[in-house]
Amino acid sequence: MTEYFLLQALNGLVTGLIYALIAAGLTIIFSVLKIVNFGHGALYMMGGYAGYYAIHLLGVPPVIAVFVAMAAVYVLGIVFEFLMLRPLYSNKIDRKDEYAIIVTFALFMVLENAAIVAFGPFNKRPPSFAEGAVHVGTLTITYDRLAAAGMAALLLIGISLFMQRTSIGQALDAVSQSRDSAAIIGIDAKRMYAVAFGLGAALAGGAGALIAPIFSLSPTMGDLPSVQAYVIVVLGGMGSVPGSIVGGILLGIVEGLGIGFYPDPNRALVYSNAFGALLLIITLLVRPTGLFGRAHLRME
Amino acid sequence: MKRHWASPMAWAVTVVVALTLPPVLNSYWLHVLSTSWYYAILASSWALLAGYAGQFSFAHMAFAALAGYTSGLLAVDLHVPVALGMLCGIAAAALVGGAIGWLCLRLRGPYLSLFTLAFALIFQLIIIAEYQFTRGSLGLSVPGLFAGSSDVPYYYTGFSLLLASLAVMRALLRSRVGIFLRATREDEDAAEASGIDTSFYKILVFTVTSAIAGLAGGFYGHFVGILTPNLVTIPEMGLVVAMAVVGGVESLPGAAIGAVFVYVLSEVLRDTGQMRFVVLGLIIMLTQRFAQNGLLVLTVSGLGRIARRALAPAAAEASSAVTDVEKMAG
Amino acid sequence: MLVRAESLTKRFGGIRAVDDVSLEVEKGELIGLIGPNGSGKTTLINLMSGALAPDHGAIRVDGVSMGGKAAHVFARHGVGRTFQIPRLFRRMTVLENLIAPALALNRTRGRADAERRALDVLTFLRLAHLARSEARALSGGQQKLLELGRALMLEPRVLLLDEPFAGVHPKLLSDLVERIEELSRAGYTIILVDHNLDAVRGLVRRLVVMARGRQIADGVPDEVLRHADVIEAYTGA
Fold first, then answer.
1. pTM score, whole prediction
2. Please, which chains are in contact with C (at least 3 CB pairs closer than 8 A)?
3. Which of A54, A112, A157, A289 has the lowest tally of Cβ within 10 angstroms?
4. What is the CATH number of the domain that holds C90?
């Protein structure tokens, strides 16, 4: 019995790391651009498909395909930021919060439906990173899950180091604190906004490519993970990458264990989707600005 | 931010046109337009909540569905007359809407959106999960508002309900409530410092708009005859947002007209499948990017300029009426 | 005793922004509240206007205990305030900015009455010609005046002015000072927070000094400004 829960917890750890990756992207976008990206789930989905087509059309090996997917979604992010989010920095837009919500929501609409049209509504599964599984005692974990978890962990460590140690990372941090002050010390805020959005998108896209061999792809695969991402970011604090990592892992594990607990199997599956949403509601009620992060800052 | 509603002339023309359309339409388009009244009521009430009062709620469809299901279940399980059921539905929507408004009091901007999004998702999942009660994804068949299979009475009822909702909302906004809502939206702390009980008015606007959404939901249920969890999906909410945004999120009649326009467009494009949502999404983006106050306002001001040039020597009343409407763009 | 604040304390995290401050204000007084940056002046104003709830202490306005009540209750009870950076209803007209508080008070007989009173206030502020302009079109100094007008529409018992002179063009500055003097002569009770020592000391008859959340002096301007603690607060750490 405990083995069952241990297995659920381990699986939960894997999905948790993926969630953390998605959430880290979301939180970076929030931190620098001060907007909640309601299109994030679709970027995750696009990454999954990008990886799939990198393998099938370009013959790229699965592990490399993840990076190709990240690059592709990075470009997608930069393009969207340039076309649609630039007006946020000038004073042409009256209601900035509203604009950001609507426009990123529209991105979600466009990408998800374009995916249905372009890729078809049926699931696709890219080839595994590595066939087979590892057996520890009575537990079995597929290599796919191990690879996904491992790569996700590496990416998370990588992004944390990037944010703290590199000059671009520090520039992003500077802009997130004050656009004007950053400009004074010579940082091109506009470039940083583009980088931040592209980076956030790329992380989501990478997560999509990592999870595709495990859970397969569908155009609507981003719907529920985006809610999880919002939960994590609210829990871990908007703008806090470490918070996203901790929150993501926690949520994944708790969710995994939770599925095991609910008695009625039919309802359990449906309600497991509600779990994240419920957690989000409770967190927002108790702490309207999340557990750890800085309070919501208005666009300058 | 001037709240000029179009001149009485424009209203009269629109109403007359709408009232005389049914004989000219085939049954398919009659059905489409009747359905568009449902969306128009939703879009305009959402515009009031989100555009005017600044509460960017994604739970709007959930209130419509709540009322629809309440009314439907009362009719099916307890044989309550449809009209009474609709009233109960509205009451339920108002109550829950007010409760959500109360829960959201401390939430600002995107946090409120996230909260209401999560609520809508949970609501949808409850409908699906509790299928013994709600018939879940299979759908709940409910009796119609009128006997017979013609859509004509529904067309007129829907349109009347739309006019009634717009009238109620307009009256509300012209009263001091309108000023308080705008002040709260402009700067909540300053509004409090000016003696405005912002909490009360936020709950009030949630209650009123949820009730109106409930009216729409009840109408829709007893018109289309079947209720499914698809009423509450995120794409549906996105559709209503698109309608309000395209028409003009700070203009209630704009949102209503935007709703009709977008819904008709989505039906015209029905053969393209999901592509129409891509088109809609792009329209939203373009509208926000280049005409944040909505296409209706832009069109009207554009038409205003053309009209003035064409009618230069003529009717002073016409041009001043147009100027009034054009001020909406300002 | 119009306003009595007793042992007000407000903590943010580990910092005591306001530390055991007591203040008694008589009707008709014109008091200056000064202190270096971070001394807690704005927080004190926020506490006295209900924008923040104190961790400790009590506030009574005209005999009524105001503990823990919402800001709009304070406002309706006659506590008018302005903000450091004007927080107007930017996309509403100047007139609408003024009638909002009047309507909230609910003592007027309808909108027309509120508009009449608003025009009176605008005339007093020399802003009547801008009545139909959007608030965001006003200059900085005009916006400060408008905020003052908005507070006046509350028929206030006491006015809390948070840095009314900050960033105001010198020419408008003297206008602003004159308006405040006129209000004081008309009997309004005013507490004025500002950094501009020259403007403040010429205006007020009583000066309260804060530093690091505490009240370090309270008295006649000339004496207070010679007080050792005050000099140390401004020149010291």
1. 0.85
2. B
3. A157
4. 3.40.50.300
